[in-house]
């Protein structure tokens, strides 16, 4: 198990009574991997477990053959840009990076040069000697990225790295990730918007409620979500007529009349086609009062991952 | 990675952390604690210098003259011997006291010149000293030239008595021994008591036996009254105005003379023209000040200043970074957790030692600056340098010990108040603990290192004295070794704690 993979074996982490992640097993090869899930789903917990910022309650983690309990070795090959938007008071961007690099044992002049290079790659030369307190949110985000890559790590972990970046910088940053991965290194990033990362990633891991929901190449994952049927409750004037019409569509799996006969419970495999069909019927004179998603979890996940990017 | 590299790494961490240790917004008060004794001694020194210049301006008095004074001497005598004083203050104090001669509740009133009268009347203007409105007279005696009471058994009248048994005749029956039934009593309006002597007689004095004479509280004695006489029971003349128990002012004349012999200030206080007390004290007392310093160092500096200073500096190293949400930066460095701990501890130790050993030495310097250079030089040549060394070392080792404790506490608990309170309590009761447990107290070792034993606070309550009493001292080498072992033990606990440390800044996704 000392290959260049990131391996999580049955990893669980609880915060008191609250679940962080539950029995997660992953084997991540080099390349760009995205952890995708709604806020609170456990992405940050996974990244923190991989870097030893928190320790698993059960299970084990191996990062390219090194345990997170050995930061002396692991951190030499790991760069982690966290989401924690805090910097040491009074530090300048350049000073912050240099101080970090000194801990790797580099001499001062070498550390300063490496800090410059890293800041340059993220377009921060001009702000390098300003205090980080004066940085904008996007600049602080970039400083964290610069810090993560400054020592040329083989494992680059990034928590919501595209948050707060303007489109131009975002494209350049994505290009940076690509070039990193092209050298056989790991780039593991998290995002709560699937659309944001699906073009970049070699692999996507979908997380909800602390569990891996789907995993694999982006196309497979997309299908996997799309095919999860979901329920809606439709309130309308003539429920039985609407039921008959809906049954005509191939995307509809099941239609049930509600007990009070004023609406339907519809199970569909393709919500976009379902929405289009309802729209057409309404135009044709069918009186539809409301459409409410009945299966909140699946739908929320779908909306969150697919919808939020629109 | 070699251990040498790890040591270098720890030193790098310490250097980065020095700023946090020296200037943290959360712990600026640490400097206040370290500088407080210096400020107090500086204030005392400035005050002494100011006083000295003021006293010198008034002229110096030879020391032997100041020492040769006796109690009871008159101011004039002292002034003649010692000459003009620096200060000469005179004042009086007065105190209102009840006249001691009136204690028995009997008042005697001469009437001068004597009057011829048949009727003698006693008007009660204010019946008593308190709020009581009742007049009480046990006997009203009227005398001429001889010892015979002219009023005894004579017919009497009065304002309405309190009861039938307390009529006016009771004031002329020649007896007071019968208690409240042997008195005249009247209340309300203007009480009066009158006797008919039968014929015009020469009246030279009256004697009034008030409530006190009958065994009642003296507050019930008549407060204000007048005696009137008349020949025809129509026209009355006031011959006496009096009080039942006189209040008098006791006046004492004071005088204070201040002399200065160049070193000592002598304050001589006279009361009623006689020397009552002499207070001769040196303006600057080097030995006394050094004892005070020893006390301040042990009771304030080691117990409180270093203690809370280390709390401020060392708790902040980890807890402060958690509050700032920057601790993860350290955990993401390629360093063992133990190396991180060592680096942070080193930074705290450097800062706290500089601040508190420096503070102690600064205070000692201020103390020396105050005093006579010759005296100071002699002290410095003798034990002074060793004292300075041990004071600085005790403060530094205090930082070593308390620093490790608060570093560990910062890793183990969120709220610094709880461990501080527990530890402060522990340090206070350690003299009472069994010997083995005494060894687990930082203060136990520090006190043994202090070069001058702290003065016992004789003015303090017994319980407090017990609490302040140092435990049986250990040898110096033993103390240093013991303290270092204790520190190693606590740092071992801290090492375990940092191994389990996780980042949790609160709400996270």
Q: Radius of gyration of chain A over alpha carbons?
A: 24 Å
Largest protein interface, residues of each chain: A-B, 36 and 29 residues
Q: And the CATH topology of the largest domain in chain A?
A: Rossmann fold
Cα distance spanning the termini of chain B: 35 Å
Beta-sheet strand percentage of chain A?
Answer: 25-35%
pLDDT under 50 segments of chain B (min length 5)?
none
> Can you tell me the overall shape of chain A?
elongated
Description:
The complex is a heterodimer of chains A (310) and B (509). Chain A folds into two domains: 220 residues, Rossmann fold (3-Layer(aba) Sandwich), CATH 3.40.50; 80 residues, Alpha-Beta Plaits. Chain A has eleven helices and 13 strands. Chain A is of the alpha/beta class and 310 residues long. Chain B is α+β, with helices and mostly antiparallel strands and 509 residues long. Chain B folds into three domains: 70 residues, Beta-lactamase Inhibitory Protein, Chain:B, domain 1, CATH 3.30.1450; 146 residues, no CATH class; 183 residues, no CATH class. In chain B, strands 2, 4, 5, 7, 8 and 9 form a six-stranded antiparallel β-sheet that branches. A four-stranded antiparallel β-sheet of chain B has the order 1-10-11-12, with no helix packed on it. A two-stranded antiparallel ribbon of chain B has the order 3-6. Chain B is elongated and about 130 Å long. Chain B starts with a helix and ends in a 10-residue tail after the last helix. Classes of the chains: A alpha/beta (310), B alpha+beta (509).
Can you give keywords for this protein?
heterodimer, A: 310 residues, alpha/beta, Rossmann fold, Alpha-Beta Plaits, 2 domains, 6-stranded mixed beta sheet, 4-stranded antiparallel beta sheet, 27% strand, elongated, B: 509 residues, alpha+beta, Beta-lactamase Inhibitory Protein, Chain:B, domain 1, 3 domains, 6-stranded antiparallel beta sheet
């Amino acid at each position: 198990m000392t290959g260049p993979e990131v391996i999580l074996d049955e990893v669980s982490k609880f915060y008191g009574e609250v679940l962080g992640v539950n029995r997660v097993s992953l084997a991540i090869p080099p390349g760009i991997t995205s952890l995708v899930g709604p806020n609170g789903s456990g992405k940050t917990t996974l990244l923190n477990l991989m870097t030893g910022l928190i320790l698993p309650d059960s299970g084990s983690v191996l990062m390219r053959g090194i345990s997170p309990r050995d930061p002396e070795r692991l951190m030499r090959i790991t760069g982690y840009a966290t989401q924690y938007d805090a910097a040491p008071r009074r530090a300048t961007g350049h000073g912050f990076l240099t101080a970090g690099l000194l801990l790797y044992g580099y001499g001062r002049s070498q550390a300063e040069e490496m800090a410059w290079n890293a800041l340059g790659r993220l377009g921060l030369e001009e702000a390098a000697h300003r205090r980080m307190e004066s940085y904008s949110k996007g600049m602080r985000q970039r400083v964290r990225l610069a810090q993560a890559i400054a020592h040329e790590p083989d494992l680059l972990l990034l928590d919501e790295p595209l948050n707060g970046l303007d489109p131009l910088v975002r494209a350049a940053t994505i290009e940076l990730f690509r070039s990193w991965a092209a050298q056989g290194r790991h780039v593991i990033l998290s995002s709560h918007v699937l659309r944001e990362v699906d073009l970049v990633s070699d692999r996507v891991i979908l997380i909800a409620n602390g569990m891996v929901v789907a995993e694999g190449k982006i196309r497979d994952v997309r299908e996997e979500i799309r095919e999860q049927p979901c329920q809606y409750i439709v309130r309308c004037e003539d429920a039985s007529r609407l039921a008959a019409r809906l049954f005509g569509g191939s995307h509809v799996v099941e239609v049930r009349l509600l007990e009070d006969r004023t609406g339907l419970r519809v199970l569909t495999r393709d919500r976009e086609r379902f929405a289009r069909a309802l729209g057409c019927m309404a135009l044709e004179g069918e009186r539809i009062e409301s459409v409410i998603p009945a299966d909140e979890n699946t739908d929320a996940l779908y909306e969150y991952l697919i919808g939020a990017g629109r | 990675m070699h251990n040498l590299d790890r040591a270098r790494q720890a030193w790098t961490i310490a250097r980065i952390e020095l700023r946090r240790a020296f200037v943290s917004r959360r712990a600026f008060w640490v400097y206040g604690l370290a500088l407080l004794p210096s400020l107090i001694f500086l204030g005392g020194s400035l005050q002494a210098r100011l006083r000295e210049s003021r006293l010198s301006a008034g002229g110096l008095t030879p020391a032997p003259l100041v020492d040769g004074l006796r109690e009871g001497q008159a101011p004039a005598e002292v002034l003649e011997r010692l000459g003009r004083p620096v200060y000469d203050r005179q004042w009086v104090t007065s105190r209102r006291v009840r006249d001691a001669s009136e204690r028995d509740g009997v008042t005697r009133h001469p009437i001068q010149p004597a009057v011829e009268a048949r009727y003698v009347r006693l008007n009660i203007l204010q019946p008593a000293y308190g709020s009581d409105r009742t007049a009480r007279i046990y006997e009203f005696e009227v005398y001429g030239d001889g010892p015979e009471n002219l009023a005894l058994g004579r017919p009497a009248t009065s304002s309405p008595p309190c009861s039938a048994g307390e009529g006016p005749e009771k004031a002329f029956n020649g007896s007071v021994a019968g208690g409240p039934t042997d008195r005249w009593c009247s209340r309300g309006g203007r009480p009066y008591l009158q006797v008919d002597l039968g014929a015009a007689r020469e009246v030279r004095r009256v004697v009034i036996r008030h409530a006190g004479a009958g065994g009642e509280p003296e507050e019930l004695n008549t407060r204000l009254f007048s005696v009137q006489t008349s020949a025809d029971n129509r026209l009355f003349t006031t011959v006496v105005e009096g009080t039942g128990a006189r209040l008098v002012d006791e006046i004492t004349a004071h005088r204070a003379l201040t002399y200065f012999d160049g070193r000592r200030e002598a304050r001589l206080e006279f009361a009623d023209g006689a020397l009552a007390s002499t207070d001769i004290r040196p303006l600057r007392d080097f030995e006394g000040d050094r004892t005070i310093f020893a006390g301040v160092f042990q009771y304030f500096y080691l117990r409180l200043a270093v203690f809370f200073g280390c709390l401020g500096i060392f708790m902040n190293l980890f807890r402060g970074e958690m509050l700032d949400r920057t601790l993860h930066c350290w955990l993401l460095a390629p360093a063992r957790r133990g190396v991180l701990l060592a680096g942070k501890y080193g930074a705290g130790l450097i800062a706290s030692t500089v601040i508190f050993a420096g503070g102690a030495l600064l205070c000692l310097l201020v103390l020396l600056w105050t005093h006579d250079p010759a005296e100071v030089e002699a002290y410095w040549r003798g034990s002074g340098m060793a004292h300075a060394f041990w004071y600085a070392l005790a403060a530094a080792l205090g930082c070593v010990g308390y620093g490790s404790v608060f570093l560990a506490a910062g890793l183990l608990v969120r709220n610094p108040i709880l461990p501080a309170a527990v530890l402060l309590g522990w340090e206070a009761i350690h003299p009472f603990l069994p010997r083995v447990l005494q060894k687990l107290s930082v203060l136990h070792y520090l006190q043994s290192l202090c070069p001058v034993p702290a003065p016992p606070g004789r003015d303090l309550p017994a319980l407090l004295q017990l609490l302040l009493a140092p435990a049986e001292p250990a040898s110096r080498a033993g103390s240093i070794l013991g303290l270092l072992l204790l520190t190693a033990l606590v740092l071992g606990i801290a090492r375990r704690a940092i191994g389990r440390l996780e980042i949790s800044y609160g709400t996270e996704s």
